[in-house]
Specification:
447 residues; mainly alpha; two-stranded antiparallel sheet; 18 helices
Length: 447
């Protein structure tokens, strides 16, 4: 007598396709091991491979023509810049990273995500990662075991370590953006309350990350999300944030002298810049010099360090100080201009710049157009605010930050959420989901 295997519970079957993507985000909570590929990178490669096999087996079109064009735009600039790399290995490594973050991972998410429920699960995974990294970061700040900042090991860096001081700030900031979008939607009240509470709690680790760039990008993005959600919601949320700020600063003493000095330094980047700002200005000028030398195609992928000294002034320091969070004191070389736009412009020229930035702007336009429909019909507003907020945060942060380190993979997942919201054919996708999933369960039971 043959035994018929019982089907998985419907809920587990329902969320099975999105679980590998959740695993990619969750693995970024592990301590960073070395400078090479991390477990999350390996899992993301497996996810992309699985999508290829799935599409071949089901013989269906992977992307709509519009999605293929928008996500495929960066390929041209990266391919041309790779031919100008200093070595084949450098060109291959740079190409793989760009394609992983800006093309393959977002495209895989378009294949796997099947509805707003999947979207929300992944958005909540961002919040979960932010809470974990934030808890580790606050512990580092309180116990003095973080990265070095002004001679004290108090900078919160989470599990990313002192080598990637922006890692925790990025994870926490994206968690705040997701939590804010989820709180402003029209989901059940307990979900909105939980999301709002997470957003407020995450302000603490974001503050002690001492990342001015993350502060600016998060404040601007959340302000836009509030404005898009409506005036009444914006006023309520603004009052809650002010109250939370009073409690955190006045009640718990978050507003330390170092934090206040860091906040004040935002307005002093032109009048009395510190050495980190001077280095950044010098690196920006160096990147512009490279672009002027090779305006169309740039100096080649991963060639910024090779050309840096030839275009930099004597104001550039020998490197940034790295210490704390498990690292002994050493100097870390400044190998990028710390601006994604200038990095692409210097290494890929106008061809790569227009292709990559054009892809992002097209994604933003598609997401905003779909947001308008969500506001009119009243469904999916939380997903729309998360999708637009994630890309907007990245566009602002890229003014003074670039790709590099394990946290870069979060960018690919964030772009994937924006791409799904703006480019997926949701009407047909939702219909297909409703038709196929229950049908498959019923067929399994019948067998």
């Amino acid at each position: 007598m043959s035994h018929v295997p019982l089907p998985l519970p419907h809920r587990a079957t329902r969320f099975a396709p999105v679980l590998p993507l959740v695993a990619v985000v969750a693995l970024l909570g592990l301590p960073v091991a070395g400078d090479g590929a991390q477990p999350a990178d390996a899992v993301s490669a497996l996810v992309v491979g699985y999508c290829v096999i799935l599409l071949l087996r089901e013989r269906r079109r992977p992307l709509s023509p519009r999605a293929a064009v928008v996500l495929g735009l960066p390929v041209a600039g990266v391919a041309v810049a790779a031919m100008g790399a200093a070595s084949p290995a450098a060109g291959l490594d740079g190409t793989a990273r760009y394609l992983q973050v800006f093309v393959l991972v977002p495209a895989a998410m378009l294949v796997l995500l099947r509805g707003r429920a999947d979207f929300r699960v992944l958005a909540w995974s961002f919040v979960g990662l932010a809470l974990w990294q934030g808890a580790v970061g606050v512990h580092q700040y309180v116990t003095g075991t973080g990265a070095s900042y002004q001679g004290e090991t108090v900078r919160a860096v989470g599990t990313f370590g002192a080598q990637d001081v922006m890692g925790m700030a990025t994870a926490v900031a994206l968690g705040v953006v997701c939590a804010t979008g989820l709180a402003l939607g029209r989901t059940p009240s307990w979900q909105r309350a939980a999301a709002a509470g997470c957003a407020v709690v995450l302000l603490v680790p974001l503050a002690v990350s001492f990342s001015r760039g993350a502060w600016i990008a998060t404040a601007l993005t959340c302000a836009v999300q509030l404005a898009l959600a409506g005036l009444r919601r914006a006023l309520k949320a603004g009052a809650a944030v002010v109250a939370a700020g009073v409690v955190l600063v006045g009640g718990f003493g978050v507003g330390t002298a170092m934090l206040q000095e860091r906040i004040d330094s935002i307005t002093q980047v032109a009048d009395a810049p510190d050495q980190s700002v001077v280095d950044r200005y010098t690196l920006w000028a160096s990147a512009v010099g490279m672009w002027r030398e090779q305006p169309l195609t740039g100096v080649g992928l991963k060639n910024f360090p090779e050309y840096r000294d030839g275009h930099a002034t004597l104001a550039l320091s020998s490197g940034s100080d790295i210490e704390g969070a498990g690292e002994t004191y050493h100097k870390q070389a400044l190998l990028s201009p710390h601006s994604m736009y200038l990095l692409v412009l210097s290494e890929q020229g106008l061809l790569g710049f227009c292709a990559l930035v054009g892809s992002w702007l097209a994604l933003l336009l598609c997401a905003v157009r779909t947001l308008g429909r969500a506001r009119r019909d009243g469904s999916g507003l939380d997903c729309a605010l998360v999708a637009c907020g994630l890309l907007l945060w990245q566009l602002v942060d890229y003014v003074y930050g670039d790709i590099g380190g394990p946290s870069t993979l979060l960018t690919g997942v964030a772009l994937g959420l924006t791409a799904w919201w703006g480019l997926a054919e949701r009407a047909s996708t939702d219909a297909a989901r409703q038709d196929t999933l229950p049908g498959r369960v019923e067929e399994a039971v019948a067998r």
